[in-house]
Amino acid sequence: MEKEKDKGCVLKYMANLKIQLEAKDSAHKQAFLELDHHENTVDELCSLLMSSELEKDIYMIECRRLRIHVHELESSIQEMDDRSLESVMIREQLSHAIDELKANQRELVAARDAIVDALTQVEVMENSLSKEKLKIEELLRNVSKLNETVLHLRMSVIEAEENTALLYERESELELKAANAKEEVVFMRPQLEMMQDLENELLDKSALINSMKAELQQANELHASSEKDTSDAVSEVKKLKEALELQERKNWDQSGYISLLESELRQLKGVLNKANEEADRANADFRTINIELEQSKKEMVEIRKKETKAQAEIAFLKSELHQGRSKIAAAEVADSVAKSEKSALHIAVQQLALEAEEVKNEIKRLKEASKPSVENQNEESKEKKGEAKSYMTRTSKPVHEEPNEIQVLEKELKAATVKISELRTRTEQAISRAEAAEKGKAALENQIKRWKEHKERKKAALAALKEESISKEITEYKSDTSPKTLQPLGKVLRMKY
């Protein structure tokens, strides 16, 4: 009876074991299904991680682009500041150009006055030249008169020489007569009486001779004086000739110089005409410049208004830049958080994979342990109760342990799903931020395009102003170079005649 009771207990125990084995098999099947589900979730998590990595790379690229765009905006702001400084410099240049134009107008007025003075001086020179021409004509007349007097003096000298020759002939004749008379006196002493008469005649003749000698002396003196006069006249004639030659040379030089002066006068008249034309052009240019200056002043007022607007826009852009930087910093923080979460997810997934492998190994071990238990049921029924109880204690421990591990896995799966949902929400927020950043980028690009168009307009205006300043400098240079042609006039006016 005891054996039957033991058999009944063993059979009941075996039935319970069968029920427990069937429950374990169903639990193992559920665990396998859950493991497959967990593997699928792990694969999904891996794909989500890959997509999050791709999105993170995209966001990093966008962050780099935004940084580049921020640097470009900073450079554009610096360019705007430089352009504002250039506009201030251009204002100063315009004020200097206006002062230079006023100075050029004063110089033009002074040049006109100098030209008028030069014309008056030229007229005075023409009058002096006409007077000098009259003086030269008078000198030529005096020279002709002096030539006539020289000819008369030469004729008188020739006549005096002829008279002296006649006087010398008479003296020689008288001396011969005196010698003959003396000889006759010596040889004809007896004829003294007659000689006395002859002496008386001789006395008369001697008186005549003395008178003739006096006349000869006078003639000699006249001859000497005439020779002196002739020498003086010759020297005077030579001097007059030299003076005439000098005067002729001067006349030639003066005639050449007069021709040069006439040519210079013509040139000066042409220069005056050109100067008048240039003055008219300068006045017209000055009027146009005044009109342009008024327009430029209006444009400067508009530019100032635009600059105030630009400064306001720059301040707004700076605020937007600060906002963009804060957004970039927030995105970087979000990226770092995403990296940390990604690393945590990687660690969690690795832990889940390890735990899944451990569960698989335990299930395999349990299956391997359950197979010999089913085959050796008859043999185990014959064993003792202690062995059965020990076997029950051995098998009951993993049965109680397996549900705890499954619950832990379920908790971890729930935590992983929560993390995945959080990651999805963060990715959606990052996408919305990226869209907002793209919108801000588009708005900034539009503003930059507007600024570029404004800069191009400013450049065109500056180029036009520079061209106008260059043309003004050229006109100023012409006005400066035109009076330089009047330098020979100063030399002419300073000449001494």
Task: Outline the fold blueprint.
Elements: H1 2-187, H2 192-375, H3 377-381, H4 385-481, H5 487-493
Helix pairs in contact: 1-2, 1-4, 2-4
Tell me the radius of gyration: 72 Å
Number of helices: 5
Give the beta-strand count.
0
Q: What general form does the structure show?
A: rod-shaped
Chain-averaged pLDDT: 66
Order of helices and strands: HHHHH
Uncertain runs? 387-403, 480-487
Which structural category do the helix and sheet elements fall into? mainly alpha
Q: What share of residues is helical?
A: over 70%
GO biological process, one term: chloroplast accumulation movement
Biased composition (Basic and acidic residues): 379-388
Family: Belongs to the WEB family.
Coiled coil: 63-149, 406-468
Can you walk me through this structure?
The protein has a domain at 2-128 and 276-490. It contains 5 helices and no strands. It has helices at 2-187, 192-375, 377-381, 385-481, 487-493. It is rod-shaped and about 260 Å long. The chain is mainly alpha-helical and 497 residues long. The longest helix has 186 residues, at 2-187. Helix 1 (2-187) runs parallel beside helix 4 (385-481) and helix 2 (192-375) packs antiparallel against helix 4 (385-481). Residues 367-403 are annotated as: Disordered. InterPro entries: Web. Pfam families: WEMBL (PF05701).
